[in-house]
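Quick note —
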Amino acid sequence: MPSCDGKIFYAILFVIILPALLLAWAIAAGENVPLPMVSSIPLGAVLSAFGITLIVAGMLALMRYGKGLPMNPYPPPLYVSRGIYRLLRHPIYAGFSALCIGISLLAGSPGGLWLVSPVVMLCCASLVFGYENIDLHKRFGPHLPVPLLHVPEESADPPTAGDRASVYVLVLLPWLVLYQWLAQLGTPSHPVIAYLPFESRIPVWEWTEVLYGMTYLLVCLVPLVAPTETTLREFSIGGIAATLLMVILFPFLPVVAPPRPFVPVTIVGGMLGVERTLDTPANAFPSYHVLWVLLAMSVFANRMPRGRFVWWALGAAISLSCVTTGMHAVVDVVAVKIGAAVVNERRALELAR
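Predicted structure written out below.
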């Protein structure tokens, strides 16, 4: 029988001491984080309230349905799949991450927003994938109830509507939000230009914006066309791994690729000009445009194996368009090979198990 002293110490540590240390870290790091101060009381209040709601709902569900406390060393004896856990598998960690971002926005704290919050999210992910998921399977077996929002299982069955919807909510939406969040960093104060000398002689081909823009449509179609749960699972985990890699790389790599200048003479050229105003040259290395295309083409090739060559040829053409539209440097595209090797590492495919 676990001692009451241990539970009290654990509660004090994670309810009082840890938040206090994170707050102190954010304040102390404020002057040493040379990144933009972003302040938004409405958004910060919404995220904070959302985070607190998830945390409280998760704790109450564990106590009511699990007959225990929300403590890793003293886990509830019963597996919980009701209440908020019917929707999410780890609502407390998701809520705490949202709360950290919300408080940072309320306080206008660059240390909290750009340093503490990302570290908290990565630590939560590490705890879930490196301990909790493994522990849950050991205690309750390999076949746990699946929440409404989930990473698809390994199965040759067609994805369910819930599988497809979950990918939009858990994979594509977080990437979009985090990408725009990182875009707020702007251009580094001492940037490294990614272009090689010969690239200034490469013309901008306006018509290749058609290929470049296809990426958004193809990626959004992936959850709808994936033939099996396994295919959609591998796309999902690849996307999650790519998002985590983006959070680690973009803030700390001062490599930028300012769009190469051109004068639009066609409607497509005008579209390319508009797209340039919606992006930032800082979020360029490696090119996530190419990385998402590679992940998407794998799904389309599995969907239509007889046309596999066509899909991969289309993926190669879209990758090339990153250079011909002047949106990326050659090294941005080449660097994706390294990123793809990390994303497709077999260990990464085991993360959500």
